[in-house]
Amino acid sequence: MPQRSAHEAVNSYFTDAARILDLDAELYPVLTSAYRELAVQVPVRLDDGDLLVVRGYRVQHNGARGPYKGGIRYHPDADLDEVRALASLMTWKTALVNVPFGGAKGGIEVDPGGLSAAELERMTRRFTMAISHVLGVYRDIPAPDMNTNAQVMAWMMDAFSSKAGYTPACVTGKPLDLGGAPGREAATGRGCVFVLAAWAEHHGRSLEGIRVAVQGFGNVGSWFAHEVAGRGARVVAASDLQGGVHDPDGLDVGALRDLAAAGRPLSEIPGGVALTNDELLACECDVLVPAALGEVITEDNAAAVRAEVVLEAANQPVTPEADKLLADGGVAVIPDILANAGGVVGSYFEWTQNIQQFTWKESRFNRELEDIMTAAYTATRETAERHGCSMRQAAYAIGIERVANAARMRGYV
Ligand code: NAD
Fold this sequence. Notes:
By secondary structure, the chain is an alpha/beta fold. It is 45% helix and 17% strand.
């Protein structure tokens, strides 16, 4: 079967869930396409004097429930189709966790690996200025994603503020000294743990001693590993772009985080055995956590997955074909729009704090995050049980129903 594009994959999940809801046919074209797609040229003067010209995108999928919200990704694969797919995922995600945002995503088709900090800064500022007319505190609020971080958000905030005046709420995921929220950096990984804990509790399991394999050791993967190990789980495998490491007795997560922060291979950790990213997906574990790229579990390797549950920390790590194979093989999947929604919930907390100019303590941030993530898991599980469907179909159904109601009330159709 020809591989679907990332956007077609999201829309296939949309269609499955919309059928369960018996959704009004008029809403399909409105909810399966983006409201606005902006593609811009981003010329970057390199340190050696050469000019690099790259393509940047901001896609605003649906704003019925609030300002557009979604991260900015720097990656060679971040083309218009991928950004479009990720923007629509954000619409269903923000609706599922019931935060007052729509869905958007941005990206630059670039390999940032070879760029200096000064080149990254020039690229970020140029991109921000090129899309600034569609951004704003009540219009569209970017955040970090793959290969972007708090520093990139600081540059975006400064570029936007140079036109609009000091506007910290125009982006989230900022450094703490610039209006960032204590707890935001860890929120996506920590949110994954809250969802996994709710899943474990429902299945009469404990996180104590549960065996976890994590692909990707950036913001999401490393914070997830840190938090889950803190609850007694055994991280038996971890990897990043350079490959991974395996130890059935459990790896030292603190040492892995130190290696990742230093840009060193995770396999340098004492006691572990090196493994490839493909081998990690097939390793013996209870919980498999893809936390890097999309489309890593496909129809070619789904049968090799030996975990009891796949927790989708990354966006779209499982293709629709693999999703069916996993279900047939009795492997549960906790879908991305639920599993990794802690990031956008944390961004919502940061945005509200910026608007109110009142900073919460991290303990309040984490408590409110746990409440929202646990409630979203429970609602998803109950909906899945009621309709006899997968957790992915249930999560989409909840999100679609909320967006469809808002779209109808606002007169979109
Ligand atoms: P990041 O850039 O901080 O880290 C990415 C990690 O993946 C790095 O360890 C990198 O080495 C690894 N990686 C890259 N290519 C790989 C490959 N081919 N094989 C194995 N590992 C590879 O990114 P992040 O912010 O942690 O995002 C990871 C995923 O989580 C993405 O899918 C992103 O969309 C999703 N996500 C992120 C957030 C957030 O708040 N940052 C929120 C929701 C979802």
